[in-house]
C-alpha cells in the first residue's frame, strides 16, 4: 500500500513536469483529487528488475520496458458535430477516460518509476480558444510531435505505450437504417488512417485500441441536453436492432482489421484491441439515474470511477488475446499482475491466438440453393360453396393472409449472405415463413406460397424487402424489435388495412392470420420481470386476439407458441462455431448473459414455459370459440424446438442469419412446412418438437379430413374450458372447494376485561403487564418481513412483496378486528403503542419502523439487525429510550437449516448459538426496559409434505431455491438426517443459552424462550391433502391465514408461565386469544412463573483417555467359516491391515513438541493401531478385538518392527499404493501367524490428501484420472492376490476445511501452506480455490464410481466397500466456535489420538450401515458410547449385495482387468441414464395431462426465508 501511495505521487509529479498545456496545469489539483483511489489499490505484484537491454520485439515487451505513455481520441468528434469544444472538455467521458490514462501510468510506473506520461492534445498548435475539438488524426499528429520534442524521451529507441480511444458512434447510427454502410465505412476509414499514420511514423510502440462506443454513447446521451442537438431524429427508440447490428458489425470489422496482420509486419509495432469498454455496465440511453439518484456532474464523479477504468485497461493488457474480459464496473477492481509463466504484454502473436473458429455452415453455396418444396396434394379444390363455419374451412377457401409479430416474421436477415452482419437489418418480407410471397413454391417455401397452390388468387402476402410501412409488406404487419405489448397496435393496423383495401371483401373473404411473438419479451425479461411476466405477456396476446375476435369476420388465427428460446444458448456456447457473440448478447442479454445454473437462467426457463402454458390456457378457455366464423388455434411446432445440428453434432449456424439470432431462409422454409403440417394435425395430436435439420414433408388434406383442424372438427375437448374467464363472475351455483375458500376476515376477538396498565410504570420486567408495553420491535427473516402474506393464490411473483403491516409479530395494519398481529393485540391494551410496521416495503422504508427483519437473513446477520434497531430506538423522538417498556421478538434460523447440508461447519449449532448470543448480548448491554421473545427455530421437516403430495399444486421446481437442504432431498437421506439433527441441536442450544441465566442479571431486562415452533403440524383438508390456503403461493412461506394463527400462538405463549409453555403449532387449531388473569396479570418470565432453571452441566473433568465403551450382545462367530464375504461377521475377521499415508501411520498423534512431529504412533492409528484396549484407545482393531481376541496384524508402539500389517508410508500418494499393496501381499504370504488362504482379512485403504494438496503444482501427475487409475491398480492387486478379503475404501476428506484452522487459529507450529499449498495459499472465493473444491469432489465421486462399478464383484470371497464418513467433512469446533485443536496435531494437519479415535468410530459405524444409507459426515462430539453394534437382523458387515443394491449375478466383463476403469464408470452411468429415460417416459405420460396446472413457474427473484 505504501508503494502505491508513492507511485501515485510519482505519477502526479511526472504529470506536472510535462504539463505543456495551460489547461492541464489548471486541472492539476482536480486530477490529484480524482486519482486519490490509487492509494487504496490492492496491487500485490512484485517488482521486476528493469531491463538493461530493452527488447527488440514488441512481442517480448514487459511493463518495465515502457518509457512513455500517451493517449488520443478522447476528444474525438465527427465533422458535423454540434458539440462545443468546452462541453467536451468538461464531459464525463473526458474526465473518466483521461483519469483512466493517469491510472494506467501509475500502474506502469510500479514497474518503471521513470515512465513519462504525455498529456492529451487538447488543440492543435496555435488553435484559437473556443474552436472545435481536433480530429483524432490531428491528435495523433500532435501527440507524435510532442513526444519527439520531449527531451526526456528517445523517440527512436524508447518503447511507447499509446492508447487510442475510438468510437463508432457517428450520431447517425441510431437511425441509420437508410445509410448504415456509409456510417460504418466512414468510421473504419477514419480509424484506419489514424492507425496507418502511427504505424508509419512511430517506432517501438505498443498500441492499445479501445472501442469506447458504448461509453461515448453513455456520456453524450447524459450530457447537458440543452447543449447537444442531435443531427438525427430517431423515431424507433424501442427497437435497438439497428443500433446493435451497426455497432456489432463495426466491432467485428475492428477485429478483422487487427487480425489481418496489417500492423504486424514490423517486429517493433503492434496494435491490440482491448475490449474492456465494449459492454460497460453503466446506465445509458435511459436517463442520468441510478437507483433513483441523479448521476453527478464531471466534478462529482467518484474516485473509484476515475480509477477503475484504468485498472480495466491494465487488466486487459495482462490477458491473452481471445481471453480478454469486458468491463463491468460494480466495485473496485483488483489489478492483475504479470504471471511468472508470462511476463510480457499480450499481443496477437504471443497469445497464440487463432482468429478462425470452425464454421458450422456446411454450405458455402447455401445462399444459392433453392428452398422450394413440392406439393404432393391432388385435391386442391375449394368447398362447393363458401363455408359459413370456420370448422369446415378448406385451404383453398382462404382468400386473405396476414401476419403479426417481430423481426422473425419481418424476415430480418432471411436472405443475407454468410458473414454479412449488416444485412440483418434488411427485412426480407417476401421470404417470411408465415406470410412471404416471393416467387413461388418451387423456389421459396412459405405458408403463403403453399396456400397459393390451393388458391392462386390469395391476397395479403408480402414480397421483396422493406419495413411494415412499405407497400409490398401488405398484410405483414410484423415490426422488428416488437414485443407482446406492441401486438395490439399491430393488430389495429392490420384490421384497418383489411377494411380499407378494395381488393379484400372484408365481410365475405376467409382470412388466415398468423401471430408469433414473445422472443423479445424473453430476451429482456430479466431487466423487468414484472413488466415481462407471463401474466402480462398473456394479457397482451389476449388484447390483440380480442380485437380480431370482435372485429374480423371469417377468420382462422394461428397462434404460434413462443419458441424454446433457451436452446439458443447451445449455439452461443459452442466456441467451435463462428458467431458474433457480442451482437448475440446485446440482442438477447437475458438468455445469453448468465450461467447455466444461475437463478436468471432458471427463471428464463420458467418464464419460457409459462409463456407457452398460458398461451394454451388462454385459447383453451373457449374465449374465442363463441362465433361460428372465428377461431384461434394454438400451433405448437416450435414449443420444444432445438438448435439444428451438423453431422458432427455441432450447432448448425447455416440455419441462422449472420447474427446467429434471426432465422435464415433455410429455417423460414422449415418453419413454413412445420406450420402447414400443424394446421392439418388435429388438436391433441399436434407436433410440438420438430427437428429442423430433418426433412419435413408437407401433409395433405384427405378426403375424410379435408378441413383446417379446429377444436370442433378434431372432436377435442379443451381441458380448461370449464374454467371461467377471470373477468367472468362465478355462477351462483359454483361453490369453492375448502382449499379455495377465501378467509377474508383475519381478525380476532379479545374478551379480556382487565386491560389497564400498572398503577405506576413498573421497574421490574417480571411485573410487566401488556398495557405497560409502549414500544414493539422485531428481528428475523422473511417470515417477519412478511414476504407474500397478502399475495393472491398462484401469484408467485408477489412473493417479493414484503407485507410488513401484516407480519405476525410486528405488523400494525388496520386493527385487531380484521388483522391479527401481536401489535394489534397489544394496541387493545395500549393505544399509544409504537414501533409496529405498516404497509409494504423493505426494512429501510420509514413504514417498516422497528421491523428490521431482512428476507433471507441467517443468524450471522442478526447482530447487524440488532445494531440497526438500537440506533432507530435511540434516535426516534417518538420513543423515550430509557423509560419506555419494549417487547422485541426474534425469530431466526430457518435459512441456516435450509443451507446446513452445504456447510455443516459454518451452520453448526455452536456457530448458530454464538450468533444468537452476540445479538442478545448487544440488547442486554444497551437496551433498558425490554422483554425479548426468543422464538425457537421452526421445525421445517413437516413442510416437505407440501411438495411430496402430487395432488397439491405447489411449485416443486422451486424446492432447491426455497430450501435446498430440506425440500428436494430424498426421504431417508443423510442430508435430511443432518438437518433433523441440526434442528434439535439449534433448539437445545438456544434453550441452554436462555436457561444459563445470562440475561437475568438486570431487573429491567429478560429473554424468554417461546417454544411453540418446536413441533409443527401441517394443515390438512378432510381428504388428507395439505391445505395450501394456509400458505403463500410458493407453498413455503405463510399466508395471512397462518400468520394470524402465529400471532395468536405467540400471544398465548407470552402469557403462559415458563415451564408450561406450548411447544407445538397447529395452524388449523381453534386458537382463542387468552387474557391476563388477576392471579397472573404479567407477561410470563422465569421469576414470576416460579421457575427454576435447570442447573448448568458441571464442568467436565479432564478426559483421561480417548477410549470407548462397547456393550454389544454376545457375538458368536459363524457356525463355520463363511465362504462368502457377504455373510461375514465381525467375529469372523482374523487379520487386519492398512494402506495409506501419514494419516494411517499416525504421525504426530501424541506429539508434545516439534521434535515429536515426525514420530509415527502406529499403535494409535485409527484403522490399524492396537495399543492397549478399547477402553483406553479407540481404534478399529481394538473394536474388533472385542469380537475376536485372536485378531492379528495390527500395529503397536512407534517402531517399524511392530508395525504389523500397517504398510502405510508417510508422505505417500496414490501412485505409491500399488507398491504398498504388493508389499502387504508378500508380508501376509510370508507370515507364519496367519492362514493366508483361509483367514478372513480386513484391509483399510485411505489415500489422496497429498495428491490433492499438490494438485495445482502438477495437474497432470495428480489428475483425477491418475488418482482413480492408481486406486484401481491397487485394488486389482488385492483382488487378484488376496483370498477372503473385505476392503474398506475410505473416501478422501474435504480438505478445504483446513483453511478455517489456518485462518482462525495461531497455534500451528508448521505453516499450512507448506503442508498443503494448493488449498491453503489460494484466496477465498478465488477461481483457484473453487477449482480445488471441484477436484476434491471429483476425487470422491469418481473413486466411488470405480469401486462400485462391479469390477470387484465377481468373486464370492472379495469385496470393496466405500466408506463415506469423510464425504462432507465437518471441522470440530470448541465452545467459542473456533476450530478445536485437541483433534489436531501441532502442525494442524495431522490428527491427535482424539482425532484418530473419532475416525475409528466413524469407520466402524460406516461398516455396520447399509450401502446407500451410510453416514456421509463425521460427528466429532465426544461420547464413549457412540459405537454401533451388529444386530440379530443384520449381523454381517454390510456390502452392496447384502444391502440390496447389487444383484447376485456377476456383471459381465466387470471383472476383466483389461477393461479400463472409466469404461465401467461410463457403462454404469449409461445404465442409470437409460433407466432414468425409461422412468421419465412413463412418468411423463402419467404427468402430462395436468402438467400445465401443476407446474407453476416462478416469476420472481426467489425469496429465501
What does this protein look like?
The protein is an alpha/beta fold and 1505 residues long. 30% of the residues lie in helices and 8% in strands. It contains 41 helices and 21 strands. The strands form six sheets. Strands 2-1-3-4-5 form a five-stranded parallel β-sheet, with helices on both faces. A four-stranded parallel β-sheet has the order 8-9-10-11, with helices on both faces. The chain has a four-stranded parallel β-sheet with strand order 12-13-14-15, with helices on both faces. Helix 7 (180-201) packs parallel to helix 9 and helix 25 runs parallel beside helix 28.
Features:
1505 residues; alpha/beta; five-stranded parallel beta sheet; 21 strands
Strand and helix layout:
Blueprint lengths: L1 H16 L4 H5 L1 H7 L31 E7 L12 H5 L2 H18 L6 E2 L18 H14 L9 E8 L13 H22 L3 E7 L1 H9 L19 H19 L9 E6 L14 E2 L2 E2 L8 H15 L80 E8 L1 H4 L36 H6 L34 H14 L9 E7 L2 H6 L9 H18 L3 E6 L7 H6 L7 H7 L1 H4 L6 H22 L9 E6 L29 H16 L92 E8 L1 H4 L36 H5 L35 H14 L9 E7 L2 H5 L10 H18 L3 E6 L8 H5 L10 H5 L10 H22 L9 E6 L4 E2 L23 H16 L8 E2 L67 E8 L1 H4 L34 H5 L32 H14 L9 E7 L2 H5 L10 H18 L3 E6 L7 H7 L7 H4 L1 H4 L6 H21 L10 E6 L29 H15 L53 H27 L3 H4 L11
